[in-house]
Amino acid sequence: MASKEAEQVVSGKEMGKKGKEGEEGLFSYVANAQKGYEPPMIANGNAFLGDVFSTTDIGRDHPLSAGFYHLAPGPELVYTYTYDEMKILLEGDMQIAQLSSSPAPTLTRPTEEGKSGIKEGEGKGGEEGIVKAEVDAKAGDVFFFPKGSVIRFRTRGGGKAWFVGARARDGA
After folding, report:
1. Among 49, 63, 94, 138, which has the highest number of CB atoms less than 10 A from its own CB?
2. Under a CB-based contact definition with an 8 Å cutoff, are residues 124 and 97 in contact?
3. What is the pTM of this model?
4. Residue 49 φ then ψ, to 5°
5. Residue 33: DSSP 8-state
6. Which ranges constitute the DSSP H helices of the chain?
């Protein structure tokens, strides 16, 4: 769902342009998406997620979908990934934890010591499981969540992320 500030998705075909003979089509874009795109609420009154693009829209055999995830202060969100996903935090903060029985997420931002920014530890048990690793994520941090990961998202002041997942549109 686009706000007034964000323009609708436009592709080369929709603009009346044609690619070379046999070409599948031209690129698509959404102007001002980071500031103007408002994804729909998915949980708890504070978690929002929306696919902006998906290869399922053009009939690809191996789906890939990308869009925005917003988390406002409030209840945490625990999500079990049934597909591989990569995510970059664009704005704000998120506390991202890997819970028991999931593969380890990967963070690309090293600490001052040059080690991974993931804090290893036993954590505390709870209904969602034991915290195996936790990151206090900031804008610019990039994550990979393997299929099967159980991830807990929290925020103090709100956060906005861009994701790319190996799944069909609206398959989250």
Report:
1. 94
2. no
3. 0.74
4. -150, 135
5. H
6. 33-36
